[in-house]
Design brief:
Layout lengths: L1 E9 L3 H11 L5 E5 L15 E2 L10 H11 L6 H21 L13 E9 L4 E7 L5 H16 L2 E4 L1 E9 L2 E9 L5 E11 L20 H8 L4 E2 L4 E8 L9 H4 L3 E3 L7 H4 L9 H13 L11 E4 L5 H6 L2 H10 L9 E10 L3 E2 L5 E3 L6 E7 L4 E2 L11 H23 L11 H12 L6 H15 L3 E2 L1 H18 L13 H25 L8 E2 L7 H4 L1 E7 L7 E7 L17
Parallel strand pairs: 1-2, 1-9, 2-6, 9-17, 15-18, 19-20
Antiparallel strand pairs: 3-5, 4-5, 7-8, 8-9, 10-21, 11-14, 12-13, 13-14, 16-17, 21-22
């Protein structure tokens, strides 16, 4: 089947819905393709809030937020993006409020704000209340609000469609090809402008807060075209996921006063970050937890977790402001935060890297500023490099809102003046061949077995602490898994709702993302942000103050080509000295 729209959005999480809404406001026809029903998108798992310098609880300024963003990104953040973001997010939060998002309130009726890791006043002097929240269900409320607004705006939704190919001809994007889960049919979508907003690839790790659907599909498809993925070595591990499960325990739990404790009951963050303690940036807290575990002070049967202590907080705070995580801890761990210490461990959480874009969402084809005409990206799928080497807490939801909006506005503006591009002959061919191979392969390897081996090896070799020998081993593991993947077959012959086929296809995407991430991490010979190399423990701004651009070698399938892109600097240069990484 064939469809045609002025603007096509892939993904219906926060970024996709914001992009679709603002494209629709641009007086163009808009469609949104999603793997899921929109309100089930992974944005709904975001608990903590949206950082914005509203100053409702304490004095705050966008300049302070920009500084925290750049510092949190360990100075790899593009500072033009950080400035736009820190200014625009203030207006965007008020827009969400006017759309009906039910923010928690101060006694005066203003949007409530609380402290969050890495957010400070006066350029790092002390913690500040900056996170705007809706209890601990902020992401869920964003999805509900934006979906309602899109229905009102007339956006057309194609739910349970899995994109299998991106159509790019002569440097211009023409549309996408997608597999419809309910019918088993291949659909072609023709568009003047396409916005990619399909989320991250956290499922390449064993312990992750990411939904089952976050398998890096569009990152892989972009990469398979010989186009670059930026900064894939930087993957954030959230310090607090429910032990063994990885389910997110919001940073808001520490913003409300939660304390991390080791097996001795010690508040160990006083040793690693004596000024802001448990509210230190996520990379520092994650490494601190792993260090405690390595040194024998972990808790639980396997001694691979630590405790978060809320027992000193009033019951009304725990069951009011932190209702969702309280329920999750009671349900999945049998631990009641009101009276029990809750076991947590770092969980793979967020990709700082992705498809490179400019500040308006337009995708880059290389590190020199060449664009792919008509193609935009936003959210975790994209890398405008707001987050640099390590995302500041709450900036993910802000990123979705600010850069999703910008992508929608500029894509609509482009679509109003552009003609429909000419589609290639038989655009479905590659997708049909890929699905046919998976359905008809006779190999004995099972995609679930390969996926498990990938996830365990990535967790062990390209996790929180890294080193050259382990990552070199991982390069070879991924090559071997990709060879085995060629023989993976699907036993289920069903045409409709063939989840085995979808999971096999997604495994191929995950292997590509793991390949690019591992090669990028092995290549970067320094420690910066979430990328911590035990064999290169210092940050090296002289040689590595640059973005990594990873390209698939189209002539040698298992080889990754590495290029670079300059960091956009704008005043914050005070920290450009090598610093030791002692944790």
């Amino acid at each position: 089947m064939h469809h045609r729209y002025d603007v096509l959005v892939v993904g219906a999480g926060g970024a996709g819905l914001m992009a679709a809404l603002y494209a629709a406001k641009g007086n163009v026809s808009v469609a949104c393709i999603s793997k899921l029903y929109p309100t089930r998108s992974h944005t709904g798992a975001a608990q903590g809030g949206i950082g914005a310098a509203l100053g409702n609880v304490a004095e705050d300024h966008w300049e302070w937020h920009m500084f925290d963003t750049v510092k949190g990104g360990d100075y790899l953040t593009d500072q033009d993006a950080a400035e736009i973001f820190s200014k625009d997010i203030i207006e965007a939060v008020y827009e969400l409020e006017h759309m009906g998002l039910p923010f928690s309130r101060t006694p005066e009726g203003k949007i409530a704000q609380r402290k969050f890791g890495g957010h400070t006043r006066e350029f790092g002097k002390a913690a500040v209340e900056r996170s705007c929240y809706a209890q601990d269900r902020t992401g869920h409320m964003i999805l509900q609000t934006l979906y309602q607004q899109n229905v009102k705006a007339g956006t057309t939704f194609y739910n349970e469609f899995h994109v299998t190919d991106l159509i790019i001809e002569n440097g211009r994007c023409c549309g996408v090809v997608a597999y419809h889960l309910a019918s088993g049919e291949i659909h072609t979508f023709h568009a003047k402008a396409v916005i990619l907003a399909a989320g991250g690839y956290g499922r390449v790790y064993k312990i992750t807060s990411n939904a089952l659907t976050l398998t890096g599909d569009l990152m892989s498809i972009y990469y398979r075209k010989g186009l670059p993925l930026e900064d894939m070595e930087f993957y954030q591990f959230h310090p607090t996921g429910l032990a063994k499960l990885g389910i997110l325990v919001t940073e808001g739990i520490r913003g409300e006063g939660g304390i991390l404790r080791n097996a001795d009951g010690e508040r160990f963050m006083e040793r690693y970050a004596p000024t802001i303690k448990d509210l230190a940036p996520r990379d520092i807290v994650s490494r601190s937890i792993i260090t405690e575990i390595r040194e024998g002070r972990g808790v639980g049967r396997d001694k691979d977790a630590v405790h978060i202590d809320l027992t000193h907080l009033p019951r009304e705070v725990i069951e009011g402001k932190l209702a969702e995580i309280t329920d999750l801890a009671r349900t999945y761990l049998g631990q009641d935060p009101v009276k029990d210490l809750v076991a947590v461990q770092p969980t793979a959480h967020y990709a700082m890297g992705g498809i490179p874009t400019d500040i308006n969402g337009l995708c880059f084809a290389d590190g020199n500023g060449t664009n792919v005409e008509g193609l935009y990206a936003a959210g975790e799928q994209a890398c405008v490099s707001l987050h640099g080497a390590n995302r500041l807490g709450t900036n993910s939801l802000g990123d979705l809102i600010v850069f999703g909006r910008r992508a929608g506005i500029f894509a609509a503006e482009y679509a109003r003046q552009a003609a429909y591009p000419e589609m290639p002959e038989n655009p479905e061919r590659d997708s049909v061949e890929m699905l046919s191979r998976l359905k008809n392969a006779s190999g004995k390897d099972n995609s679930a077995v390969i996926r498990k081996e990938l996830q365990e090896s990535m967790m062990n070799n390209v996790g929180i602490f890294r080193n050259g020998p382990d990552m070199e081993k991982q390069v070879e593991i991924i090559k071997e898994l990709k060879d085995r993947y060629k023989n993976v077959g699907v036993s289920d012959p069903s045409i409709r709702y063939n989840s085995e086929l979808i999971e096999a296809m997604e495994l191929g995407f995950m292997l590509d993302c793991a390949e690019a991430a591992t090669a990028s991490a092995l290549n970067r010979q320094e420690s910066r942000g979430a990328h911590d190399r035990e064999d290169y423990p210092e940050r090296d701004d002289q040689n590595w103050l640059k973005h990594t651009m990873a390209y698939k070698d189209l002539n040698q399938n298992d080889h990754v080509l590495i290029g670079y892109k300059e960091v956009a600097l704008k005043g914050y240069t005070r920290a450009f000295e090598p610093k030791p990484r002692v944790y």
